[in-house]
Amino acid sequence: MEDALFATLDPTTRRTRTVDGREYTLTDTVGFVRHLPHQLVESFRSTLEEIADADLVVHVIDGSDGKPEDQVSAVREVLAEIDAGRLPEILVVNKVDAADEVSLTRLRHLLPTAVFVSARTGQGIEHLREVIAAALPDPSVAVDVLVPFDRGDLVSRVHAEGTVLVEEHLAEGTRLRARVNPGLGGLLAGFAVPAISG
Questions:
Q1: 102-121: pLDDT as tens digits
Q2: Where are the beta strands (DSSP E) in 11-140?
């Protein structure tokens, strides 16, 4: 039988897309317990440090818990310890279907920016997806490139990391008009389609 506490520290990653087609990964990095012992934080520092590389923390708490604000404090304390306290955060209150209205009203007052959902019933999930999409970094570099077929790796990266506006398969390769991050924009610069003047 698995040790339940340690099982919650096993990260799971899934790919998904925003409504506008941007691909991103969700990593369920860690399940916290209240007053996580410091030695446990140290033991799992490498797992926890995955959070520090994230663009966004989706911090899910149990809305049916007696004192969910204690969960919020415990997680934020650990995030600060691993230097991830600076990351943008979306606070999500889950299990609204199992919480009473008085508790939910109290939580809405305590956590006014939180998104309230039920993973079991689907309530609020579509709104959460919209909030995540709005909070993810938007690729800032516009490119118009003709990528040769032997550089399919770059086309894949544009699909995974950017927003493809137009894609055409031509005899010379794949033409992409897209928005990408600056690093990928630099890699694609050599394949830029010359602007037609006049």
A1: 989 999 999 999 999 999 99
A2: 12-17, 23-28, 57-62, 89-94, 115-116
